[in-house]
Amino acid sequence: MSAVIIDGKQVAKDIREEIKVEVERLTQQGVRPGLAVILIGEDPASQSYVKAKAKACEEAGIYSSVIRKNETITESELLQLIDELNGDESIHGILVQLPLPKHISEEAVIQAIHPAKDVDGFHPINVGNMVIGADCYLPCTPHGVVELIKRTGTSISGKHAVVVGRSNIVGKPVSMLLLQENATVSICHSRTKNLADITRQADILVVAVGKAHMIGAEHVAPGAIVIDVGVNRVEGNKLVGDVRFDEVKEIAGFITPVPGGVGPMTITMLLKNTVEAAKKKMMA
């Protein structure tokens, strides 16, 4: 029996409807959530992401400011711009689209964004608060992954979750979030020996390595929840995940497709964080 397909588009749509209602409520109280996105250079993928974020903001009623800069901008000029946005009362969230030009330090840029406006959840203060379970903005993609798992109706508590990938953007934070949901978490990576022996133990398998079709049927236990975070372009510019979807869906209990699985959740959680930032500002 084939796995149940986890429809990330539908889950994201449901959450965005909830966000839209919340934005209307806040706006009526005199606070319209605002998100500033800084885009540097002409990278097509980055432009596409930023366009999608701006559209999502508009649909939710969130004020969106897209600031485009030439890739010749200096690091000091970019940091000055971020500092100005930190002090802008109409902006509740700041996002600098990655990747950055080589002459600009990603670390310096992330740390320049005030933690209260770090709706990406990348600032060390927010990361630290996430690790200890304190109030913070959760990183968008990992938060979306956990939300998709919950929407299957499966309790995470007590389950064995295996995360394949250890990036700061997905692997590490999603491991922390699953641990906070009382899962027993194993983290695998490029140097893990006998990978399939470990992944087959997973009740919940999250794959975020960025390697097309790395995970197949031999890696998955019958009935497991499989969340594929990978987005890879293969021949003919086709988008595929890190999981061999067609074969794994015949074994798993639930599985996310690529595209249409985790992807729509990332922007949705960004909107959610921006609304939360506006609410905190209003209550301050």
Please describe the structure with a list of short key phrases separated by commas or semicolons.
284 residues; alpha/beta; Rossmann fold; 2 domains; three-stranded parallel β-sheet; 41% helix; globular
What this model shows, in words?
The chain has 2 domains: 31-114, Leucine Dehydrogenase, chain A, domain 1 (Rossmann fold, 3-Layer(aba) Sandwich); 139-262, NAD(P)-binding Rossmann-like Domain (Rossmann fold, 3-Layer(aba) Sandwich). The chain is 41% helix and 16% strand. The mean pLDDT is 96. It is globular and about 50 Å long. The protein has 10 helices and 11 strands. By secondary structure, it is of the alpha/beta class. The strands form 3 sheets. Strands 1-11-8-7-5-6 form a 6-stranded parallel β-sheet. Strands 3-2-4 form a 3-stranded parallel β-sheet, sandwiched between helices. Strands 9-10 form a two-stranded antiparallel ribbon. The termini are far apart.
Summarize the structure.
The chain has 284 residues and is an alpha/beta fold. Helix content is 41%, strand content 16%. It has helices at residues 8-28, 44-60, 75-86, 106-112, 124-132, 140-150, 171-180, 195-199, 245-248, 263-283, and strands spanning 4-5, 34-40, 63-69, 93-96, 160-164, 184-188, 204-207, 225-228, 232-234, 238-240, 254-255.
Topology:
Elements: E1 4-5, H1 8-28, E2 34-40, H2 44-60, E3 63-69, H3 75-86, E4 93-96, H4 106-112, H5 124-132, H6 140-150, E5 160-164, H7 171-180, E6 184-188, H8 195-199, E7 204-207, E8 225-228, E9 232-234, E10 238-240, H9 245-248, E11 254-255, H10 263-283
Parallel strand pairs: 1-11, 2-3, 2-4, 5-6, 5-7, 7-8, 8-11
Antiparallel strand pairs: 9-10
Helix pairs in contact: 1-10, 6-7, 6-10
